[in-house]
From TrEMBL:
InterPro entries: EamA_dom, EmrE-like
Keywords: Membrane, Transmembrane, Transmembrane helix
Limits of the EamA domain: 11-124, 133-259
Naturally occurring in which organism (per UniProt): Sneathiella chinensis
Protein name: EamA domain-containing protein
Transmembrane intervals: 20-40, 60-78, 84-101, 108-124, 130-150, 162-185, 191-209, 221-240, 246-263
Top-rank lineage group of the source organism: Bacteria
Amino acid sequence: MLLVPLMDGTAKILVADYPVAQVVWGRYAFNLLTLLPLFLLLRQRLRFSRTRFSLQLSRALFLLGDTALFFAALFFIPLANGKAVFFASPLIMTALAPLMLGERVGRHRWAAVLIGFTGTLFILKPEASGLSIGYALALGSAFLYALYLLMTRKLSSSAPPLMSLLYTALFGTLIMSLFLPFHWVMPDGRGWALLVATGALGTISHFCIIKALEIGSASQLAPFSYAEIISATLFGLVVFGNFPDMATWTGISIVVASGLYILHRENRRQRPEQETSTST
């Protein structure tokens, strides 16, 4: 999660000079190119299967929509502020887990979700019109990312992590290539380097996410997303000179506290189950 804001930070630099569609294409195209050597390094075979193909496609579309909306949001708002809004995704994921995964969410975690959403009100404070558009795009991105994580969890037992990542990169590249003729500006050397960096960081970070979701439950892992604020704030401060204001930090604190409480309740719920399994 510390690496994801670095990918988004390179995208924010790029969207200032290149169309969003082209930047999204670069994120997936170079994600695909940097992913293939991993198959050789880890001695994995390419095994495409029609099993649960519709779920793989849905998962890829959720992440593609998330990426497009968030990169577009970064044209309007600072990186750390965008990540602050994006922190609603673990709360959304916890709220949707019963519906999509059949995971039980008790009343304490529901209360934490509702309190966490009040924290987003501090982040989504009235702003200038351009910033409001950016915050709306970031919130839509958070919703799609929550769906992506839930779909990843659902697919974790039916596809190797690298294959899941390959499906996502392949679908994203093919779909965005359709838009490329209408949204293309020839990059200079710096532009190409940033496009490659965006794709490579996407490969590494999302491979780690997929591996994590193989082991832990969606609601248990959700709070780790908050680690993004560390690198997002540092990147935004060093590269763009932006630092979140007090209202934004207040909102972040409420959302993070809610997420950590959800993790606490999840651990308490799982402990008796593990003891029962051990004694059996």
